[in-house]
Target: Segregation and condensation protein B
Amino acid sequence: MEEKNYEAIIEAILFTMGESVELDKIANAIELDKQETKKKIEALRQKYEQEERGIQIIELDGAYQMCTKNEMYEYLIRIAKQPKKRVLTDVLLETLSIIAYKQPITKAEIEKIRGVSCDHAVSKLVEYNLVNEVGRLDAPGRPMLFGTTEEFLRSFGVHSIDELPVLNEDQVEEFKHQAEQEAEMKLEV
Model:
């Protein structure tokens, strides 16, 4: 390895790990002895100090960790306190409705109902903590089963799934008819 790459490698290790990494593990990774590795880490620590960066490397009982400087705390709090905006698009709402009414349900079953792939929609709903994995189907490949979360109940103001509105057959037929008309219009364009 070239001399100039050691600092970058150490930086990448500490940044990626997120927690403290023992000196001997870093030394093994960069193929240097502990003493030489410690010199490289110290040089990197000093560079962060001299350049007045927002991050630092700290030593914790023979291990090193990259973390934010204490002076930056107030700025991090400003970001952390900002509420996350969740946008539930029509696709997400449709997928969420299917999961809510048919749970537990697999992605394949959702896709059969929607007629299109649902990977992105389910991933977003999991990210928003509105749905989660509730188990595995006892079938080949053991597909994941999805269901709604407590956050879903809070967000939609219901105490349980039993409180979701029940659709009568006339409403279902009306929705099907509207969906067919929309599909025909898209095909004409």
Observations:
- The radius of gyration is 26 Å.
- The CA atoms of residues 58 and 65 lie 5 Å apart.
- Strands lie at 21-22, 55-60, 63-68, 131-136, 144-148.
